[in-house]
Each structure stands twice: as C-alpha cells, then as structure tokens.
Amino acid sequence: MAKETIAGLAKRLGISKASVSYALNGQPGVSELTRRRVLDLAEELEWYPSSSARALSRSRAGAVGMVLSADPLLIGTEPYYMGMLAGIEAALAEGDMALMLRMVGKDPAQERRTYERWAGEGKVDGVLLFDHLHDDPRPALLDRLGLPFVLHGAPEAEWGTPFSGTTTDHAADAATIVEHLHQRGHRRIAHISGPRAFLHEEERIRGVRTSADAHGMEVVPFEADYALDAGHDAVVALVQGPVHRAATAVVFGNDLMSMGGLLALRELGLRCPDDVAVVSWDDSLHCRLASPSVTALFRNPGMQGRVAAELLLALLDTGDIQTRSMPRSELVVRASTAPD
Amino acid sequence: MAKETIAGLAKRLGISKASVSYALNGQPGVSELTRRRVLDLAEELEWYPSSSARALSRSRAGAVGMVLSADPLLIGTEPYYMGMLAGIEAALAEGDMALMLRMVGKDPAQERRTYERWAGEGKVDGVLLFDHLHDDPRPALLDRLGLPFVLHGAPEAEWGTPFSGTTTDHAADAATIVEHLHQRGHRRIAHISGPRAFLHEEERIRGVRTSADAHGMEVVPFEADYALDAGHDAVVALVQGPVHRAATAVVFGNDLMSMGGLLALRELGLRCPDDVAVVSWDDSLHCRLASPSVTALFRNPGMQGRVAAELLLALLDTGDIQTRSMPRSELVVRASTAPD
DNA sequence: AGGGATCACTGAACCGGTTCAGGTCTCACA
DNA sequence: TGTGAGACCTGAACCGGTTCAGTGATCCCT
Questions:
Q1: Would the CB atoms of B79 and A77 count as touching at under 8 Å?
Q2: Which terminus of chain B is more exposed, N or C, with fewer CB under 10 A?
Q3: Contact A192, A163 (CB under 8 A)
C-alpha cells in the first residue's frame, strides 16, 4: 500500500489539505462535521501525520535531549539514573515529546559537541541538564546556541540570567541525616562526599557542617568520586589516618560509595553499626540488600525526573521560566544506624 | 543571527543548493575544490544540516526505537537494561542514529500502539525487540507495519520468515552452570526461572534439564517473575514444600531473584553456601556485593546491546538479514558456590 | 436593504534539505 | 572536425506537513 499523506486524505474527502490540517490539530477554521470526518478517516486508515514533515514545517523537533556524561560504568550501576529516566520518559510521553538520550564519557568536549550538533541540526527543542558544576560552562553555551534548558538540581543562590530548574534543599537533607546521627549518639562523623566540583556537593558539605555545628558535633570531610572503590578507599584512609579515633559514623555521597565503605569496614574488622554507622545520601536496592542494610536518604529520583521534564515542557510550550523546589527527602532508617 | 540554511551557504559561495548538498554528503558531482570550500564554510559557520529537513526528503528518520515494556520498578533496579542501553547507544551513535526510548508498563497493547504510531509517523526507521515470547505477535505486527526489526535473543530454531537477530546458546550457558554445580558436588538442584512465556526461559529450562540428566543430577523447576520477592517466595515455597530435603543448590533466572532468594535463606536460617548454594543467571553489582557474594553468569549486556544495534544498522543500511550468535557467557565464581 | 463581522474553506507559499533530468565545457579519439 | 564520454554544475520538482491571505456564503444589526 502506498503511504497515505494529508493530500490523500484531502482528496478522499473532497476537501483541501489545509482543512485536513486544521481538523487534525484542533484548530479553528473547520466545521465540527468536517473535523469528525477527517478524524474518523484518519482512524480508519490508521494514519498518523509524518513527524519529520511536521518537525520541518513547525520548526520544532518534538524531542528533548539529555546527555549522560558520567563514567559509563557508573551509569550502569547507579540505579539513580534509571529511576530518573523513567520519570522523565513518563512526563515527556504525556506531552508527546520524545527523549533523545546520549551517553558520553567524562569528556566535557563530547558533551559540548553534542549540544552544538543538536542545536545546529534542530534535533531537539531543549535539553535537560544535570549535575551543576562550579562555573558550569553549559548554561552559557546553551544560551548561545539558543537551546532552552532546565537545570535539574539548580543552585539555590541567584543566577546571572533567570533560568528554569528544580532546586533541592541540600541543607535540609543534611540536617535530616546529621540529626538522625546525633540522636543515635554520634558526636564525630565523617562525610565522604562526591567531587566538590558539583555545586550540590558543596551545598551538602556546608549543610552537614552547619547542622553538625548546631549540635556540637565534629565533621571530617573527605572528597571522593562516587565510585565503589572510592568509598572503600576513603574508609581505609580515614581509619588508618590519625583522625579515626573518634569518627563513629560515616555519611556517603551515594549508594555505591556506601557499599564500598561497607566492604572496607568488613575488611578492617570493624563492625557496622557497632563500631561505625553508615548513611547513604542516595537510597537504592543496594542499600536495602546490603548487610547490614544501610540507612539512606530517599530522594525519589523518578519524581525528580518527572518534575524536571515537566518544567522543560512548560518552558518549551509557553516560555515560562520557573523553578520548583523538591519536597524534602525522607530518611529510610535501616540497620546500619540501628541503636547499637 | 538568522539560521543558516543550505541556500544560504550556496549563495555565499555562488553555487547552487544542489552542489552544496552533494559536497556535504560526499557524493560525486562536485570538484574537490568546491567540496573543500563547502565543508570549510560549514565548519566556519558551525553549521549542521537540519535533521528534520533531511529526514523528510530522505524519508528516513535517523532514529531507531526501543520499547522497554517491563514493570517500571523492575527496569529501575535491573542493571542489565542500563548496561545494554549503554552498548546500544554507543553503536547507534557511531552510525549516526538516535535512540528513541519508550518505557511502557507490562501492557502489551501499549507496546503495540507505540509501534503503530512510530511506523505511521515515520518516527523511527527500525526497532529493537527484546524478550521473545511464545507466539510473539510483535514480529508479524512489525512486518505488517513495514518496520524493520532486530530480535535480541532470537530462538535458535528456524523461523517462518527470515529475520535479523542475535542468538544466545542458552543450552551452553545452562551446561556451564550445571557442570559447575556438579563439580561442587551438588546432585539435586532447583531452577527458579523467569516466566515460561519467554522463549529464552524455555530454552534455559530445557538446557538445565538436559545437562543435569547428562550428569545424573535431578532438577526441581520453578517458575517465577524476575522480581525480588518472587525469588524470595520461591525459596520459601521450595524449602517448605516436600521437595526440599535434597536440593542443595538453587539457580535463579536473574540477579534480583537471587537476592530475594538469599534473603529468604537467611530468614529461614539456612546458610549459603553450606546448606544451599546459589547461582544467578545474570551478573551485576548486586551479585558482587551480596554476602555471600553470588556466583553468576556474566552475559556482557553492553556487548549484547552493541551487537543488536549493529545488526539493526546493517539491516537498515544494506537490508542484510543476518543472525549473530553471542559468545558463550562466562561464569564468575564467587562465595555462594564456594567449596563448602 | 446595506454593511460589517463571522464562519468554512481553499490555493499557494513555505520549512530545508535531496535528487533527477538536463546543460556546458573540456578532452580524447577516430 | 565531428562525436562521444565524462566531469562539474544547475533549475526545479519533491518530501509531507503548516500557515497565511483571500474568497464566498451566511448571519446579525441598524
């Protein structure tokens, strides 16, 4: 069968292409009767308008892009991404937008080139940005390219030009964690964060310190890179360093590092939670399954992804620039911080 | 700045649109000099051809689709999917194809409607198909829709019409697992498979039985659904049932069920591997981190995804229908089957 | 009855590429 | 010198939608 087109439908119904188009898109300019006839015929023929023709004439791709620029190994094991992806996809599907996913290594140039190409080719109408960095070059780049974007996990502080994004109150999350540890009797804790290059890690570090100060607790900060081994090595370094004596709890920046830390504790003959308690800043199945199971902050990645996608849809649709703050995360208390 | 187009480039260079197009696409019909001038100008202007215009005139979307139709919860926790996705994406990017990802629930109608729409809209040039079912309606549907597809994990048996796909020798994998258990002294094993509706599960079940027969071992088959709880409940059912007495090892169809099984064993006061050994048919970080760590079959999801994507690219490019068999999986032996 | 507003509809231009059917020009060969 | 081949290039049609300006017809209001 030859592919149907709008011209074909028009001919069958004895009306013009324009009328068909108006009818299909719910626009005024056609009678209810005509509209029905068009819609019925389209349904009967199982016909859908060509997305590329539409994209061309509307100058709109009907897709949004997302670059995952983390270490591929990390992406594969981080359940956080997949959960977020599901939320994003669900929201986009409702808005009839496709998701263009690109995975590149840690190379920032690759990410930049991807945006340049997407913009040049008109392949996406906007992008979702993650993991905001210090002096992040991406917002300026995207502005220059004319690509609208939503910043997931935007800084609370004000920004040069207004932007759309989700914000998380990392200080509140930090307080939740620290207060829990305080209540469990810990007075000196270690905080193994992700790279400080990420703004949200800075905020977490600050939040932890502030909250600890408020409760008269001491914090040993330690920077790592989210990998399993990083968590492991950090714990080894902490324990073998001079500061160990008093740190009775460790807060890890994500679930993978928590798992690494747990392995290290076991190797070192330290018991969790008796000798050292553990908290993870991300919850996941890993935390649930570990032994001991790990107390973790549930940040609801699916919902976060959904909200970010909805913001982007709104931005593309109406140009509305807005920020939405995420609801406070919940701490899921498990065995790793059980009261001795 | 106004958006550049091919007409703009042509005017700047004083040549025709056609020549620019030929030059850009490496087609004959232009001199080397002209080609260079065009390419240089395009680079200088950071210009890329509009993907939608290209898609329209070539009648090719430049994208392939993939529907993940598993339980969203499962998708999020199954590292297998993410690994495969990374491989697929890498291969597609090399072939300058985009990936269109759609996540729908377990509802087959949703999946069908997605294909119908994609085909009607011309949104994708082909699709990747997973988890082949008994009497799978999808190949016929896609044929009817004129959408080329690659079947990942195709049946070894011959098929009505020829098709492109990857095949896995599940019997060999089964033999690897069973022989390992035999060598460890097990003579009666349980096999907790995924749903029999999946062809590959049938093949695995057959493979396990065949191999067990060959070694004079007994198999207790048990059908479950890949979820964590399913693994848990299956173990409970097995242990409380009349057959338990002699089953000294359990083979799980994926890593999640293995984890569930481990939890159940712990609850039941059974020790692993001393009382019951455990093997997982999928390897992942979960298997590595569990205690005891779980012996698992490493099936290299990244590579599998890459190969499937490459097959699809070849199919779209040259129409080549071919099947590629995956290299034999490797068993990663860990503590859950340690020699007592 | 006349004038303006509204409605239903249409022809044609347009989006930005690709591609086909020629048109020159040059060069080799008979 | 004529002819055929080949290289280089161009105008115009085409892909399949959207959208704008314009045309009749109908209706309402004074």
A1: yes
A2: N
A3: no
Say whether domain B63-168+302-328 belongs to CATH 3.65.10.10: no
CATH superfamily of A63-168+302-327: Response regulator (3.40.50.2300)
**Which of A103, A121, A228 is facing B89, going by the closest CB pair?**
A103
| CA triple B245-B251-B253, angle to 5 deg | 140
Q: What is the DSSP string of B262-310?
A: HHHHHHTT--TTTT-EEEESS--HHHHHSSS--EEEE--HHHHHHHHHH
Indicate if CB(A319) is under 7 A from strand C.
Answer: no
- Which nucleotides on strand C sit less than 7 A from a protein beta carbon? 7-21
Residue written as token pair 């090595």? A233
Rg for chain B (alpha carbons), in Å?
Answer: 25
Taking CB atoms and an 8 Å cutoff, what residues of chain B touch A115? none
- A138-145 and A108-121 helices cross at what angle (nearest 10)? 20
In angstroms, the CA of B252 and the C1' of C9 are apart by 65
Residue by residue, pLDDT tens for chain B (340 residues) are 568 999 999 999 999 999 999 999 999 999 999 999 999 999 999 999 999 999 999 999 999 999 998 776 677 777 788 889 989 999 999 999 999 999 988 889 999 999 999 999 999 999 999 888 888 999 999 999 999 999 998 776 656 678 899 999 999 999 999 999 999 999 999 999 999 999 999 999 999 999 999 999 999 999 999 999 999 999 999 988 875 566 899 999 999 999 999 999 999 999 999 999 999 999 999 999 998 999 999 999 999 999 999 999 999 999 999 999 999 999 999 999 998 5
The fold adopted by the segment(s) A6-49 is 434 Repressor (Amino-terminal Domain) (1.10.260)
Contact A89 B102 (CB under 8 A): yes
Where do the domains of chain B lie?
A: 6-49, 63-168+302-328, 170-298+331-337
CATH number of B170-298+331-337: 3.40.50.2300
Closest to A327 (Cα-Cα) out of A208, A189, A169: A169
Residue matched to tokens 């068009």: A38
Closest residue (CA) to C1' of nucleotide C15 is A57
Nucleotide nearest B22 (Cα, C1'): C18
Please indicate whether, in this complex, the C-beta atoms of B89 and A101 are within 8 angstroms of each other. Answer: yes
Nearest nt by C1' to B18 Cα: D10
The two domains B63-168+302-328 and B170-298+331-337 share their CATH topology (first three levels equal): yes
